[in-house]
Design a protein that fits this description.
single chain, alpha+beta, Aminopeptidase, 13-stranded mixed sheet, 8 helices, globular
Amino acid sequence: MTKISKLNFFNKRKIKNLIPFLNKDKNNSFLQLLSVSPFGGIHNLLPLKYKFLDESYIIEEGGECLGAATISPIVGNHSKLAITQLFFSENAYDVAKQLLEFLISHYGANGASAFYVLINEIQSDLINLFLSGCGFRQCSAEETWEVTKRTFQKPSTIKYRRLKDSDLKEISDIYNDSLITYFKPTLERSSQEFAETFCHGLTYSTSYRYVVEDYSSGRILGYFLVSTDDDENYVVDFNYSDGYEINPEGFMYFAIREILKRRRHFKLFVKTKRYLKTSERQKEFFVSNNFQWLKTRLLLVKDFYKLIKQESPVKEFIMLGETIVR
């Protein structure tokens, strides 16, 4: 009999023989990837809108673990969830499909309306599982680059500071304005999605948020986020208003300066997101500075829309016992 249950301290050892199919490049153990937390018992009792930690499930048959998956909440919007980890035995795609369908049904019943997953473009079988097996659709893609230099020129026209809650509306406006129009219905973000979760100190990664301002006027022109899971590999996510000519070199200078305050030796990565208008300019900068391209991941989405009842364009009139349709 097949059983799906939450991953916990007592059954976590069952997954050590499974193969990771998402985020395989992380240098963490499988237990860290599947996010077993001492706060899990309390977190399980919270309704979806208050969840802030990853949640992992395993699928078993006859006491044997066949697969595992992790769902991660998106800060500030409880209706959006990301599938961040997926483990199963080799070629056991039917098992993975059953587990994914359970997660979508379970969280969908609790209020989730959109699920996101990033998959390496070379994993064609896994992509087909999500597209054909689970009803996802391909939305866009993200490219990951390794920063191969540490010295960038200090900008003279922009400055930076830590992001404050009062900046969230401006930051969300910059992000949403920079979205290519086609992707806005799916990828627009509210201001709260840029905020820190109330219990951010208990989450599995560390992040630091900053805004970039015009040096003379103080006008916010962009933002960047520095995050790490292990205090060794850092990722810089930055964006800026496409209405200004801004050199990405300033963002790199600021980000490295902040990381060096915490760590002398580290690896640094950046991303280009094809759904942003600024992605091509960022990519040109990465290529011209000899950043090393590592991978391209496809962004797949499964979302549920509420149908809006519309008036029928067909109108009937009764005249002298006859029905006239217009």
